Amino acid sequence: MAAHDIPDSGQQLGSSTQRRTAVPLDERRRMRHESRTSQTYKAFLKYLCDVGRLPSEQAAEDAAVSVLCVLEQRLVGEEDNDLEAQLPMKLRELLIRCDRHESGPPPQKFGRTEMVSMVAEDLDIEPDDAEPIIRAVFSAIQAQISTGESDDIAGELPPDLRDLWARPA
């Protein structure tokens, strides 16, 4: 019997079955993770552009940052942490108070009118134009989280905001 017929003899049959690369395994895994994270985020922004009829990924990102910042200000207790835990990594980064609101008051109770006004001001648009954007962002968020988490968030919102959350774009 020849050495190439013996398993584990150190001889290889034909081509190598082991991947050879100069990039360490941990680094390849990190790169794959970043690629998936980026793809998920791009899909989120594309969804926002389509549903919210936003002109660009930058406009979609601005809308997401504004709405998530205001939503974070409205959620109290652990609900913001529960929501964050279900969002993809790049979206988690958006669910924090933006620089503009970081030094502001702690989470507070406010309704639809205040939320629409805050988002309109952040995006420098008319309040009538802000509501469809809020709905689109809420829709995109709900596509990323479980039904149970969506229900939990709805339970924390007053009826007028719950209506925006429950009837996304």
From TrEMBL:
Signal peptide: none annotated. Gene3D superfamilies: Uncharacterized conserved protein DUF2267. Transmembrane segments: none annotated. Residues 9-20 have a biased composition (Polar residues). Pfam families: DUF2267 (PF10025). It comes from the Bacteria. Residues 1-36 are annotated as: Disordered. This is DUF2267 domain-containing protein. It comes from Corallococcus macrosporus.
